Automatic annotation (TrEMBL):
ATP binds at S218, G219, G220, V221, D222, S223, T224. It holds the Pfam family GATase. PROSITE patterns: GATASE_TYPE_1, GMPS_ATP_PPASE. One of its GO terms (molecular function) is GMP synthase (glutamine-hydrolyzing) activity. It catalyses: XMP + L-glutamine + ATP + H2O = GMP + L-glutamate + AMP + diphosphate + 2 H(+). InterPro entries: Class_I_gatase-like, GATASE, GMP_synth_C, GMP_synth_GATase, GMP_synthase, GMPS_ATP_PPase_dom, NAD/GMP_synthase, Rossmann-like_a/b/a_fold. Catalyzes the synthesis of GMP from XMP. Residues 191-381 form the GMPS ATP-PPase domain. Homodimer. Keywords: ATP-binding, Glutamine amidotransferase, GMP biosynthesis, Ligase, Nucleotide-binding, Purine biosynthesis. It is an enzyme of class 6 (ligase). This is GMP synthase [glutamine-hydrolyzing]. The active site is at C76 (nucleophile), H164, E166.
Amino acid sequence: NVLILDFGSQYTQLIARRVRELNIFCEIFPFNQIPSDLSAYNAVILSGSPFSVRAEDAPQPDLSQIRGKKPLLAVCYGAQYLAHFSGGEVAPSNIREYGRTNLSYIEAGELFFEGVSEGSQVWMSHSDTIKQLPTNGVKLASTKDVENAAYRIEGETTYAIQFHPEVYHSTDGSKILENFLVRIAGVQQTFTPNAFVDDIVAELKEKIKDDKVVLGLSGGVDSTVAAVLLNKAIGKNLYCIFVNNGLLRKNEFQNVLKQYEGMGLNVKGVDASSRFISELAGESDPEGKRKIIGRVFIEVFDDEANQIEDVKWLAQGTIYPDVIESISVKGPSATIKSHHNVGGLPDFMKLQIVEPLRMLFKDEVRRVGAALGIHADLLGRHPFPGPGLAIRILGDITPEKVSILQEVDSIYIEGLKKAGLYDKVWQAGAILLPINSVGVMGDERTYEKVVALRAVESTDGMTADWVHLPYDFLMNISNEIINKVKGVNRVVYDISSKPPATIEWE
Ligand code: XMP
């Protein structure tokens, strides 16, 4: 197990992902919350930071339990921190060193750089530079502009690098991390999807014993993988609830329910469509719609959970990025949902929480899902927002609009699948616009709805580029939609990226 101390760098999660790719488990902790018991950790990595070590309010953790006691790799800010407080010197550099550069010198015979040659591209992002190495520092590498691009400390298993091995542009970054973690620190590469499944199933059995657990399935990857893991651990004591809010894709409720039953899950499908649709009537404000859907979901889920006698646990599909966010250097984000605190907690929220995926990144959840034998179709599904089609129908929601959008969306998504484009797109969907436009069909003028199609590439939804779908594909889909869906006479394609646009229109 590897401990990553976060100084607030935008790249800290990437360090963790690179380490995990080496089949090594790691955990991120903020620099000011170092675990008191370090016995489980075989190595420590210090992240970069937006701070300068020379700033008064810069992070200055006490590393006395780590330095010289555990193998230590300090990245960027970490490297400067070690230098600045241990007899070296850090000063502002004349030029801000940012972007790609190459290692122009590498000290020969060092395990740390084994398999890495001079000329190797690295990624720099810093405005201070290490002018003088700390006491007992041995220079290991330089670039054209940075004399001390890497060093180690004689007599300790301490290494420091000014560049970022975790970003993709550092070509040998993973190799360097592997050299440090595996060859120098001797960490075992045993964190595989199968090993994770064995460990977590044993842990869940031990923790939950014969108690009953309730879990809300959404049809998405996270809740599905969480359910299958729990099912493996506790079988029929897992009660899954899948709510139809009437805003799912066409036939989604029936299809996904069938798939869940086929997987041996103890699942109850609750069709609350008419309740959601009637509560939403007349609401056209995006946040208003989200609040109604959130509230009604909680009411429906609560009613169902209350029917399970003696249930003790609520399972959730929380994944690691959410956990990191909640314990981050900047503190828990201020977005704790307001409705949780209004009028007392719903009954199911008084349950103990179990989160089998809380240590996994999204791609790891998919790999664990594959190891569990979950069908690739389900694991490869595009993200779909909780409020569903409600936020893709601009303006107020009526059953007619829902059914028009379901038809359009289904033609679009099926079309992407048939054309082999579905897996190349991160998320796709159709949006029903609140305007009519003039058209002509046969000899008749029409005055009907406009739909927009959206397809984006992204890794995490934080930024996104619109996808250059082939014109022929767009032409065929547009024809099919206008010919088959009554009430639509115009199709447009959204060519906006995020930022400044967002993925959804509401
Ligand atoms: P935006 O529109 O903010 O979307 O660029 C980013 C990602 O978040 C999804 N999204 C939501 N998911 N509830 C959800 O569960 C919501 O209210 C919501 N709004 C947006 C969106 O589909 C995209 O994947």
